[in-house]
Amino acid sequence: MPSDPRHPQAPDKPLPRSLRGEAVWPPPVWLMRQAGRYLPEYRAVRARAGDFVTLCTTPDLAAEVTLQPIRRYGFDGAILFSDILMLPWAMGQGLRFAEGEGPLLDPVRDAAGLAALRPQEALARAAPILETVRRVRAGLAAEAPGTALIGFAGSPFTVACYMVDGRGGGAFHETRRLAHADPDLFGRLIALLAEATADYLVAQAEAGAEALMLFDSWAGLLPPAQFRRWVIAPTEAVARAVRRRAPGIPLIGFPRLAGPMLAEYAARTGVQALGMDTAMDPRWAAGAVAPDQALQGNLDPLALIAGGAALEAEARSILEAMRGRPFVFNLGHGIEKTTPPEHVAALVRLVRAG
Ligand code: CP3
Fold first, then answer.
1. Sequence-distant (≥ 6) Cβ neighbours of residue 3 within 8 angstroms
2. CATH number where 121 lies
């Protein structure tokens, strides 16, 4: 496998090898939201930064919290510390994270709102985030040479959910109504996002990301025809652009709660690897995707909170289902803030024992 042309001496790392279709065993392991509030050292830096957007746009601090879980656990992947909502922020949409309320955005719901976005300025405004990517890559070279840097973005559909509804919550009625009622307007938002997302992912690869992930947390809200139109088609466009402009950098698609639509998503989008959510049966997924498409997932974050024998049984059953195929151990959704840090250490030991 050719190594990264920007780092010709770097040996190929386990995570990108798995993502490119090799059955590396024991499998590489990292956890979604591995940098976060369950770690006291994260809470300390978070308090110093003040607000969350400042943390994401201060390269020293963002690089530090990206590396914290690597120092503790030696994960195979270091995911850039940022947020999927930093792309709308970089396009000029008002964004704040209110205590106890999650993200709040100034909603985009009509042609005027769409016209006010400035996608052409997004990469310039995202410069501090791309600087974080460079610093983390350099930090890994010095501290954890086997750990690969993962860049990411939200999928066009999931980002549109927050942009249109203006807040989280999980129902996203405004977005789903708009997609049915005015597919022309919604389609223009999705097309704009697909292009900006591809540019943003390619920029992360150029800054040093060695794998990329597209978070589609709300894909499972859509009926099949809408799923094809608003999830599969734009993801295919993003994946095509990434393949052409960042060749050799694997892309992980994570269409959360897609259920049986995972098969079509895997066959048609052109992503190299598929994230499995907590509800997915790994054995079913192994039959639904191509044998050289890596699977990633999908331990229940609540089993990680529980720990002990329950955690061990769940983790082992996933490992047994995935043995012999390209696989990356992960959770089925982000780590919860009440997770005891020592349970994470126990999980990593268990996975590394194969
Ligand atoms: O460690 C990592 O995984 C990297 C960083 C990362 C964050 N968010 C940091 C974060 C990543 C990859 C994300 C992705 C993300 N953000 C998703 C997709 C994955 C998923 O969870 O479904 C979504 C939907 C978001 C949007 C978002 N960001 C929400 C809804 C919230 C509030 C929820 C909460 O727990 O408060 C955030 C905030 C956020 N993003 C935090 C972190 C660590 C917590 C904020 C804080 O520290 O105060």
1. 9, 10, 11, 12
2. 3.20.20.210
Which residue has a Cα nearest atom 22 of ligand 1? 217
Q: What is the pLDDT of residues 141-188, one digit of tens each?
A: 999 999 999 999 999 999 999 999 999 999 999 999 999 999 999 999
Q: How many separate domains does the chain show?
A: 1
Torsion, CA 21, CA 335, CA 42, CA 249, rounded to 10: 20
Domain-located, residue 338: no
Residue in 29, 30, 33, 72 to alter for ligand 1 test, most ligand atoms within 8 A of Cβ: 33
What's the pTM value of the predicted model, to 2 decimals? Answer: 0.96
Instruction: Write the CB contacts of 207 (distance below 8 Å, at least 6 apart in sequence).
Output: 130, 131, 133, 134, 137, 151
H helices of the chain, where? 14-19, 40-49, 52-56, 59-73, 86-90, 111-116, 122-125, 127-143, 156-165, 173-181, 183-207, 224-227, 233-245, 261-269, 282-288, 301-306, 308-322, 341-352
Q: DSSP letters of 224-239? A: HHHHIIIIIHHHHHHH
CA of residue 83 to ligand 1 center, whole Å = 6
Name the pLDDT band for 123 (thresholds 50, 70, 90): very high
Q: Is residue 256 part of a domain?
A: no
- Tell me, what's the pLDDT at 275? 99
Q: Are 220 and 259 in contact (CB under 8 A)?
A: yes
What pLDDT does residue 5 have?
A: 53
Q: Which residues have a Cβ under 8 Å from the Cβ of 20 and sit 6 or more positions away?
A: 1, 250, 272, 294, 326
Best CA proximity match to 279, nearest among 322, 332, 328, 336: 332
Does 353 reside within a domain?
A: no
Structural domain boundaries, residue 220: 39-231
Residue 201 has pLDDT above 50, yes or no: yes
Residue 263 falls within a domain, yes or no?
Answer: no
Mean pLDDT of 205-209: 98
Distance 188 CA to ligand 1 centre (A): 26
Q: Whose CA is nearest to atom 5 of ligand 1?
A: 81
* Residue 262: how many other CB atoms lie within 10 Å: 24
